[in-house]
Amino acid sequence: MKMSEIPGVEHFELFVKFTKAEYVDSLLDGNFYMNNINFYIELENNSKTKGVGDKWEAAHVFQFDEMYYMDSEEDKVIKLLGKGELITRFEKSREVPVYCFSKFTAKDYSLYEDTDEYMSFRLDIGDDLRKFKEFGDTAVIFPVNIGEALREAAHSKGMDSVFKEVTYNGFSDKTLGEMDEFHKGSVDMFFRKNEMFKYQREVRLALYNTFVDNHFSLETQNIKEHSIVSPIEQFLERSAILAYKNDEALD
Prior knowledge:
The chain contains six helices and 15 strands. The protein is α+β, with helices and mostly antiparallel strands. 21% of the residues are buried. It is globular and about 80 Å long. It has one domain. The longest helix has 11 residues, at 37-47. The chain has helices at residues 24-28, 37-47, 128-132, 146-156, 176-183, 232-238; strands at 13-19, 31-36, 60-71, 76-88, 97-105, 109-114, 118-123, 138-141, 162-165, 167-169, 192-194, 202-206, 215-219, 228-231, 240-244. The chain is 19% helix and 37% strand.
């Protein structure tokens, strides 16, 4: 049974940053290292690792199953070019810094134990679990108000920001409405990704009117007291969420 099916815990959510152990102390001190969009666009080329990064970041993308080279005057096909894609992007968007992490919800957890005193739940996300191990060796569970804390930090420095979940769809699902929003410069361009990345369950903060050459460090108050640090395998494979039955909804 999924956690989302049980009244009283159906709205559970957990914000988690997967990172390397060497970066954890700085993060807990309130230093949020934000790469710009271009970092993710170029990541696969720079790292030489297939499948990392996202070359379609902040872009409107159309993919075509078939493209042709034609003689326009004779309306004659000269050669079949095969598949192709059209990527449209505001070049300035490459310089916008973003901070990305994951949001797990009650839909991601299944009932593990049901005793007289409590229910426990384990992460149950199938093959997605393996993919998260590529993000680092450590999981940092953020305070529940992390989105608000990041936005307040940005506001205190006079920066415009948006914090929300990323939405995922296929390129074939693109609509004229989305294209119109894109050309009007909607900030939604920073929160749309291809469905192949859906496993990431991503939320992000975008400083959409700030432009940096490489990265930016957003400083907040120390979050160590209200965060949990765990080896990544422990979090993904062995950790459990306990809900004690002091609430009638869980009985």
